[in-house]
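Structure in, sequence out. Go:
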């Protein structure tokens, strides 16, 4: 039994066992020096949760369907990307009673799947580029903290953990710092997020999501150098043109009902990237 505060009332959430299915879609559109590329991801995610006596609970994600369409220049990598995605197509997490992931319970199984795949890949992909790429994946899959951070990206399962269960307060803005990796040439962006409660009923709560660029980015010099190599003047600065969306949660059990977020960044007139995230409980479709 978990507790949530909503409308100054303490709700007891009976989440001994729940199962839901979600549809997730991500569309990324990048325009650079007049050339536009689009990437799409559509998948079905089975969600299961089970509470237990430690005042924590287990959440399991299983990807049932994974349709990926990469940009034209990355088409040859689609098969490889799909193989690597299967390493984390089943994830078991231990989560706190305020919806904070604590650890990956099946981390050893993930490592085993990766090691098996890595052996096969090393036979087919040679050269320094492949070696560097697989080295990075090896570090990610073998390190629990690194892998957990990756799983909490919005392109994976981050939408399910955006808000703590105990922050359904009226007239209160919840603030969060989010790092979105691979936003520009594999470089991350840091965002200051705000969640504002806009609708509330006996069963649901909807929050508007807004954001601004964090004052201190992780790799500002690398970002400038990247755009310089693309013939974009250093006088231009990276701007966050849009960071807007919403998330709807079920008050009776804390489950995600729907999540949508649109992000657009630009640098001068020759670079623009937009990403649309959408995750919805299939019962709502």
């Amino acid at each position: 039994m978990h507790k949530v505060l909503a409308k100054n009332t303490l709700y007891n959430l009976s989440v001994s066992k729940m199962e839901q299915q979600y549809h997730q879609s991500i569309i990324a559109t990048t325009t650079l020096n007049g050339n536009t590329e689009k990437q799409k991801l559509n998948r079905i995610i089975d969600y299961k949760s089970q509470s237990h006596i430690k005042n924590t609970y287990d959440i399991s994600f299983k990807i049932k369907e994974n349709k990926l369409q990469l940009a034209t220049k990355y088409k040859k990598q689609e098969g490889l990307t799909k193989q690597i995605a299967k390493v984390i197509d089943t994830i078991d997490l231990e989560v706190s009673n305020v919806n904070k992931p604590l650890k990956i319970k099946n981390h050893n199984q993930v490592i085993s799947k990766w090691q098996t795949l890595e052996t096969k890949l090393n036979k087919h992909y040679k050269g320094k580029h492949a070696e560097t790429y697989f080295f990075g994946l090896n570090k990610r899959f073998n390190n629990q903290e690194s892998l957990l951070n990756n799983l909490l990206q919005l392109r994976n399962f981050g939408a399910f953990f955006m808000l703590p269960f105990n922050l359904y307060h009226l007239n209160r803005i919840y603030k969060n710092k989010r790092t979105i990796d691979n936003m520009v040439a594999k470089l991350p962006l840091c965002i200051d997020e705000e969640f504002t409660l806009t609708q509330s009923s006996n069963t649901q709560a909807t929050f508007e999501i807004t954001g601004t660029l964090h004052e201190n980015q992780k790799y500002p010099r690398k970002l400038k150098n990247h755009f310089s190599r693309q013939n974009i003047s250093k006088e231009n600065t990276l701007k966050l043109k849009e960071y807007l969306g919403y998330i709807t949660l079920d008050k009776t059990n804390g489950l995600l009902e729907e999540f949508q977020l649109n992000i657009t960044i630009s640098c001068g007139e020759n670079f623009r990237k937009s990403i649309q995230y959408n995750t919805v409980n299939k019962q709502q479709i």
